[in-house]
Amino acid sequence: MAAPPRHATMLSISNGGTAQGTDRPQTQQAHQQVQTQSQSPGLRVPSNRKTIYDRHLNRSRNAELSRASFAFIFGEMVTYAQRRVTGIQDLEKRLNEQGYPLGLRLLDLLFYRSTSTSTSALTSSSSTSSSPPNRPLRIITLLHLIHGPLWRLLFGRAADALEHSVSPDTPNEYMITDNDPMVNTYISAPRDMSMLNCAAYVAGIIEGVCDGCGFETKVSAHNQPTDLWPSRTVFLVRFGSAVMEREKVLERAGVK
Amino acid sequence: MNQLASPCHYRTQLIGFIHMRRTRVDKVNAELVTLTYGTLVAQLCQDYDSNYQDVNKQLDKMGYNIGMRLIEDFLAKSGVGRCANFRETADMIAKVGFKIFLNVTPTVTNWTSDNTQFSLIFEENPLADFVELPDDGRAQDELWFSNILCGVLRGSLEMVQMQIEAHFVSDVLRGDDTTEMRVSLVRYIEDEMPPEEE
Question: Could you tell me if B84 and B162 are in contact, meaning their C-beta atoms sit under 8 angstroms apart?
């Protein structure tokens, strides 16, 4: 799909919908001309062509909005999710599911931007392949992508730590730490829900990024407060067995 | 339980205000906001089985909840006083409110002669950036994607004694040339003393 990887596509529930002939905007010719180019012939578009296909994807690259706006929307999202679930796990699962589609889209956005600007931060441990979009093949490269560029895109800074499980039983577990997750700044949980971590939303984003890259993963967010960082959160990334097997093969083959 | 998701928990709110008055408004990546709002609307469409009227209503309700809290944040950040009339209120909403929270300045226009109704025309709308409505033959006729904004205005103005009605009349996402919201003043809410107090 040439369309920008946004929630636009996520919203498209059925694409083979009936094309509408009625109720079109004034300028028929311009309209039809655009229609032939657009992905979905059934949708009406404004005559001034303010559609997602006509506007540059990097337009909002450095755009900023009030943090309060995010907090308000996110807060409503959590409240809404809370009304429809039965427990903390359920709620976190739901938040995770809402973050997931963002991950899929952000992944494409990251690659698009890293290739179009040539100052690629992703290629630090690049493969020998000459094709520019360096999709991570190995786990570590992928995790660096999340820890660095993804975090910077979302929160304006890198994550605080990236660790591998030391236990021999769980070689598939990695941990990404954020000392002070922005999404939790304005969330306060009641005492009986102190286990809740709304950064499950971010865990969903990570999961989306990993899945989009072809790394089957489960990601969860956990509270790990310290004296210095009361809302410190650890994102536990657990890769599937198929991923681990492939990882071994790639290691033997010397792929980086 | 209600406090759980409240973005402005009372204590952090107070601390936050002091902080905000001193420094500039805290920022966040605009794309994160856009995408978060998008995923919320998508979730509603899914939960309500693409009954877009219900989605509109739910968005409006969420906006109302936001508005009731947002007004304090607005007053603290802007430091403005009481508006003399509804025309002034409209300018305040467009030039200060939307500027602070969405970094856009919609145009205030189409006043009725009695100065109780106006339109906000949005050149830009960060909430609807990168959005394309579902091509199901209904969404473009029924869904008001940014309907949360109507609720925000309703909620926040109610907290400063104005009962209003707000709805979108056009949206570029629907193929219209402009995005326009119509706002009508219903009445000024009189200060009502609790009955038990003399």
Answer: no
Q: Is the ipTM of this complex over 0.90?
A: no
Q: How far is CA A159 from CA A96, A237, B28, B180, in A?
A: 19, 14, 16, 40
Taking the C-alpha atoms of residue A99 and residue A104, their distance in angstroms, rounded to an integer, is 9
CB contact under 8 A, B31 and A153: yes
Q: What's the CA gap between A214 and A138, in Å, rounded?
A: 10
Show the DSSP H helices in chain A as ranges. 7-11, 28-37, 67-83, 88-116, 139-145, 151-155, 200-212, 241-253
For A118-143, the pLDDT digits (tens) are 444 444 444 444 445 578 999 999 99
| Residues B163-184: tens digit of each pLDDT | 999 999 999 999 999 999 999 9
- Residues 11-50, chain B: which have Cβ within 8 Å of A? 12, 25-47, 50
Q: Give the CATH fold of the A67-253 domain.
A: Muramoyl-pentapeptide Carboxypeptidase; domain 2 (3.30.1380)
Domain boundaries, chain A: 67-253
pTM value is 0.81
Q: Residue A174: in which H helix or E strand, if any?
A: strand A173-178
Distance from CA of A244 to the nearest CA of B (A): 31
Task: Report how far residue B86's alpha carbon sits from residue B185's, in angstroms, rounded to the nearest whole number.
Answer: 8
